[in-house]
Amino acid sequence: MAAPRVAGGRGPCRILGLDPGSLRTGFGIIDIRGPDMGCVVHGRIEVKGASLAQRMARIHAGVSELLERYAPDEIAVERVFVNKNIDSALKLGQARGAALAALGVDSVVFEYAPRAIKLAAVGFGAADKVQVAHMMRQLLRIDGILTPDASDALAVAVCHAQTRRLAALVAAPDVAPLASAGRR
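Above: the chain's sequence. Below: its structure in C-alpha cell form.
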C-alpha cells in the first residue's frame, strides 16, 4: 500500500474509490474540502453475462471513462480478499487488474484491506453491507438508491480520505504547549 501524500492531505481532493468485481465493479467519487466530504457520483460498471475477455475490456473502458470525465486526484482500491474458492479469487484478481490497467503507469494507487475499509467507514471492521451503505448515506448525505457495489466503493474512498487526513495530522509540526498563566 502506498503512503498517502502528506502535502495533499490538507487541501481539497477528489478521490475515486473502486471495488473491483468480476460481474460488477463498484465506483464512488468523493470530493473532500477540509472536514467536509461530498459524493460526486457513484454507481457500478455492470459486466454480467459477457465473456471473461469482454468483461475485462468493459471494466477497463468504464474506469478509463471515469478518469477522463471526473479527473480524480487520488485513487483508492479495495485489496483482493482471498477466500477458499480459488476460481473466484482468480476472477476477482483479473477484474482488479483490468481496473488497475486503466489507471495507467503514472497513477499512484492506494490499497486498503476490506476490514480496514469497514473500520474507517463504519467504525467496525466486521460491518455488513447494510451497515456500510447506511454509513455512506449518512456521511455523504446520499438520498435514493445506493447499490452494495457503489456503497463499498464509496467506503474505499472514505477510508482513503480518513487515512490522508490522519497522515496530514501526524506530519503536522508539533504545537508548542500553552504557557500557564501565573505558574512557574
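Residues 8-171 form a domain with the Nucleotidyltransferase; domain 5 fold (CATH 3.30.420.10).
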